[in-house]
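hey can u check if this looks right to u? its 172 residues, i copy pasted from the old doc so theres a chance i mangled smth
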Amino acid sequence: MNFTSFTTKRLLLRPVHTDDAAFILELVNTTKWLKYIGDLKIYSLKKARNYIKNSLYNQLKQLGFTTNLITLTDTNQKIGICGVFYRQSELRFELGFALLPEFEKQGYAFEAAQSVIKRTEEIYAVNQLFALSRAENLESQDLLARLGFKFVCFTSLSGESEETLLFQKVNS
C-alpha cells in the first residue's frame, strides 16, 4: 500500500493504516464520536483493523485518498482523523473529522481540514465537497462555516431516522 503524507504548520497527516488500529478503537468509542457520528460497533483491535482494511484501504485503492491520521509533528502524538470519503449511497464526497477530546479547541481540526480540502481540490480535482453534522453539534457547524461550508438542507442517511444537516463547500 502506497501511503502519501503531508504536513501543516503543526501536523502530519497520512492515511490511516492497520498499525493505527488501537488509536481508531479509542477514537470511535469516545463520547462525542458515539453521540455525533454514531456507533460503528468497533469494540476490539480485530474489528478496528478490519474497518481500516475493508473501508479505508478500499477507498485509498479506488480513489487515491482516504481518511488521514492526524499526528502532532513535535511529539508524534496521534490526536485524530480528517479526510474526505465517498459516500456511495449519496454519490457525493464528504469531509469528516474527529479529535480525541483533549485535543479539541486548539485549532487542530481547522488546520487539518483546511489542508485536506486544499489537497483534495488541487490534487484529486474534487470540485463538490459536502459535510454532515448533527443538529446539536454546534462546534462542528462552526468549524464548517469557518472552512467555507454553507447549510444546504436537512437530510436523512439511509437506515437512519434522525435528520442530519447537510453542508456544501462554497468556493470563493
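The helical segments are 21-27, 31-37, 45-63, 108-124, 138-146.
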